[in-house]
Design a protein that fits this description.
Elements: H1 2-18, E1 21-23, E2 43-46, E3 50-55, E4 60-63, H2 70-73, H3 79-90, E5 93-96, E6 107-117, E7 120-129, H4 133-137, E8 148-158, H5 171-188, E9 192-199, H6 203-215, E10 221-223, E11 233-240, E12 244-252, E13 261-268, E14 274-281, H7 291-309, E15 320-325, H8 333-339, E16 343-345, H9 346-351, E17 358-359, E18 366-367, E19 370-375, H10 376-379, E20 382-387, E21 417-421, E22 438-441, E23 444-448, E24 460-466, E25 471-477, E26 489-493, H11 503-506, E27 514-522, E28 525-533
Parallel strand pairs: 1-2, 5-7, 8-9, 14-15
Antiparallel strand pairs: 2-6, 3-4, 3-6, 4-5, 6-7, 8-21, 9-11, 10-11, 12-13, 13-14, 15-19, 16-19, 17-18, 20-21, 22-23, 23-26, 24-25, 24-27, 27-28
Helix pairs in contact: 5-6, 7-8
Length: 534
């Protein structure tokens, strides 16, 4: 009996030694990788998905949260800014032992790993999910029921003549670059492209247009002849003349940097509707002097040029879509200057604080410096907006200089940004609803789940922004309230008589007339809804 008892105790001790500890990650404001210290040498399983933040050759950098540039998340001293600083400095780990290529943004569910140190893990098993090359090849992001597709894209120095000065260093390198860029543009299949970091003159843009027309015979892409000689890089437009026609010629805005800011009015042939498209490439962040002040001057010049251009007797159009590489994070002064002039940041409007288009070469922090903004009259005619993550989530080894990979992936160091338009000058706007399992009506929002999910309903949160980007309330958990007209719906009603409504939201009710953006978060995803209160 005593011997059997000792064996049982010994077995229990062994099970205790080899048990796998479950790591439950708490609030991102407080959790750090130092909490792994008691488990060094042990095997752990993460109870939350872990995100790939960088994909170097020997190990992945992972964190429970995507790592963002702080100015991508909020103004300095804000809670969002401080959280980003905290996550970037304390929450990441190096994950070795991964034998397949994985893009940044992929999530690992149920990650099982050996803890080597508080900054080093060895991969044992896990369920990889999402953001793969196959996801990108499946098609462009969902942009709603659009009629026109507009793309803004930094091509990373597309030069065909002056090899070595910028871009490709040889004809062979350029042909690799050409093949990759071409495949990306064909995949996007836009009606209008606003392109930056093009070589001056016509040779580079004509090569792109000829390649597109050969691949898409149903299209009739054209470009504007350029006689400029003093520019090195330029911004310019490519458009399908079967779908849209220019109203006059592009107008150049030469503040600070020449040939990198242009504006044009396009008319949709099928409807006669017009809009003004502004493509931009602001001063780079690097270089001597106060480059941010230069970008602020550029932002002011673009607004001033638009205000002059729109009242021209040939144009007479107010709807503005402004896109391009502004070399500025969303909470930096150049972008705030545009927002102060009644423009809406479409990254924020459609993707809350999860949007990005750029990552420093093999770095860990993402951000968007490739922007899409519009004025109030244009907002109700935009069906969707999204970066298309062909490039920022790839390792730099796949670019045309370091690799013979001729796929469209890592064709540039920037992601293209896509905007869907349904032009209609007669509408004042109606609520925009994304598809999928989320719904909204009036001021009541709900998550619709399947019957077999009833026992595992995910936590659902929402927050509300003004169109200028001001967050009215922090993410708030949805709670059952009132009569549920359909089974399997969790409702959250914004009304004064809702006893579950936090006081910090009640103080803003009733919401004044205007346009608001509601973001609903669940299972690591975000859905954006436009709410118009008349």
């Amino acid at each position: 009996m005593k011997r059997r008892l000792l064996i049982a105790l010994f077995t229990l001790c062994c099970l205790g030694l080899f048990a796998q500890t479950h790591i439950a990650v708490s609030d991102p404001d407080t959790w750090t990788a130092q909490e792994l210290a008691p488990y060094i040498g042990q095997t752990v399983i993460f109870d939350v998905p872990v995100v790939v933040c960088a994909n170097g050759s020997s190990a992945l950098t992972v964190s429970p949260w995507r790592m963002f540039e702080p100015l991508n998340q909020g103004i300095p001293s804000s809670a969002e800014y401080k959280t980003a600083v905290h996550v970037n400095g304390t929450c990441f780990m190096q994950l070795g032992g991964v034998d397949a290529y994985h893009r940044c943004g992929e999530k690992i569910y149920h990650l099982k790993a050996k803890v080597n140190s508080t900054s080093s893990l060895t991969f044992l098993s896990g369920d990889w999910n999402g953001n793969t090359r196959a996801d990108m090849l499946a098609g462009i992001p969902d942009l709603g029921d659009y009629r026109l597709l507009v793309c803004g894209f930094n091509l990373e120095n597309y030069f065909v003549a002056n090899y070595g000065s910028m871009g490709a260093s040889s004809y062979t390198e350029h042909q690799r670059q050409r093949a990759k860029i071409h495949k990306a543009l064909v995949q996007i299949n836009a009606d209008i492209y606003g392109l930056v970091e093009l070589e001056k003159g016509n040779e580079a843009i004509s090569e792109i247009v000829n390649d597109l027309n050969n691949a898409r015979p149903e299209r009739n892409y054209k470009y504007f002849h350029d006689s400029s000689t003093e520019a090195v890089q330029k911004a310019d437009f490519v458009y399908d003349a079967n779908v849209v026609e220019p109203v006059g010629a592009p107008v150049m805005i030469d503040a600070e940097v020449k040939h990198r800011k242009k504006i044009i009015c396009f008319r949709e042939i099928a409807t006669g509707e017009k809009f003004i498209y502004s493509i931009n490439h602001f001063k780079a962040m690097s270089g001597g002097g106060d480059t941010e002040s230069q970008r602020v001057n550029e932002a002011r010049a673009v607004v001033s040029s638009y205000n002059s251009y729109r009242v021209n007797k040939t144009i007479r159009e107010n709807d503005l879509l402004l896109m391009g590489d502004l070399n500025a994070y969303p909470f930096s002064k150049p972008v705030l200057t545009l927002l102060e002039n009644d423009l809406t940041d479409l990254h924020r409007a459609f993707h809350a604080d999860s949007s990005y288009s750029y990552r420093q070469r093999n770095g860990t922090k993402t951000a968007y410096i490739d922007h899409a903004l519009c004025n109030k009259t244009m907002l109700s005619q935009i069906t969707g907006m999204s970066p298309y993550h062909l490039n920022s989530d790839e390792t730099d080894d796949y670019n045309y200089k370091n690799s013979h990979d001729n796929s469209m992936f890592r064709c540039s160091d920037h992601d293209p940004v896509l905007v869907g338009l349904k032009l209609d000058s007669t509408i004042s706007g109606a609520p925009y609803f994304n598809g999928g399992d989320m719904g909204a009506d009036s001021l009541t929002f709900y998550y619709h789940y399947a019957p077999n999910e009833a026992d595992t309903i995910p936590e659902v949160f929402f927050d509300i922004y003004t169109v200028s980007g001001f967050r009215i309330c922090q993410p708030t958990r949805m709670t059952y309230y009132g009569i549920v007209p359909e089974a399997r719906k969790k409702y959250y009603t914004l009304s004064d008589d809702n006893p579950y409504l936090p006081e910090e939201i009640k103080q803003f009710l009733p919401l004044p007339s205007g346009v608001y953006i509601i973001h609903i978060y669940y299972n690591g995803t975000v859905k954006a809804y436009k709410l118009i209160i008349r």
